[in-house]
Amino acid sequence: MDSLPLETPATLDPDELSAALAPLGAGQRLRFLHDRLGSRLVATTSFGIQAAVMLHLIHRHAPDIPVVFIDTGFLFPETYQYAEDLLARFDLDVRIYQPRVSAARIQALWGNLWENGKEGADKYGLLTKVEPMNRALRELGADAWISGLRRSQSATRAERAFAEQQKRTFKVYPILDWADAQVDHYFREHRLPPHPLAAQGYVTMGDWHSTRPVTADGAAEATRFSGTKYECGLHLDSGTPDFQI
Fold it and tell me: pLDDT at residue 48 above 60?
């Protein structure tokens, strides 16, 4: 397999890397990235509805990649239980990071930020997700980040490339081009356990206060933050203040 002479994220070109990743399978993409970036590479997981797919791929193809789990303190009880189930099944190097401000302190000082429109939701995301993610990248010495985002998940992700630069962090999406049917097939093929809330109509999974089951029209965008925004707060636009290190 021909490969680009990649060394560090500082030398990467997003367009060239996207072109190199496009013809590969998901497992090949993970091995390619790990071979080239080594300890400067980190993955993330939310232990959400489809998280088992990416975790299983990492387990099979690149188990040395650290996997960061951002525990906001507001996750569904079922998500914490699901995380323990998957951790018992897979050989993974999971690093758990939590906000510097506790859930109780957030509510005491700022109230229910997630109820205050996009501005409140963005502040909530900075406190509970961006800050601990920045800390994880810094402490792990990583500047390349693997995520399980897929184009078919929402209109906001439909135009993403396989690789993109966001400030000092290089982001890559190994299953970006997977359709929902391919995800479902992977679950069945490898007998992966579903998230406990999948059977209740949840198609995406975040914090208990701002995630709902899918509506009658089937619009995934309506299931997060009452439809005002879909992104969880971690994958913010690169122009957002304090986004990434």
Answer: yes
Q: What's the pLDDT at 235?
A: 53
* Chain-centre distance for alpha carbon 157: 13
Query: Tokens representing 133?
Result: 């993610």
R_g (Cα) of the chain, nearest Å:
17
Rounded to the nearest integer, the mean pLDDT of the chain is 85
- Assign residue 121 the CATH number of its domain: 3.40.50.620
The whole model's pTM is what? 0.84
Q: Rounded to an integer, what distance in angstroms lies between the CA atom of residue 24 and that of residue 224?
A: 32
- How many C-beta atoms surround the C-beta of residue 145 within 10 A? 23
Q: Which residues are annotated as catalytic? A: 232
- Domain coverage including residue 194: 9-227
pLDDT one-digit tens code per residue, 3-25: 444 445 556 788 899 999 999 99
Tell whether 245 is covered by a domain. no
Is residue 235 in a domain?
Answer: no
Task: Please count the structural domains in the chain.
Answer: 1
Q: Could you give the CA distance from residue 42 to residue 83 in angstroms, rounded to a whole number?
A: 18
Residue 104 included in any domain: yes
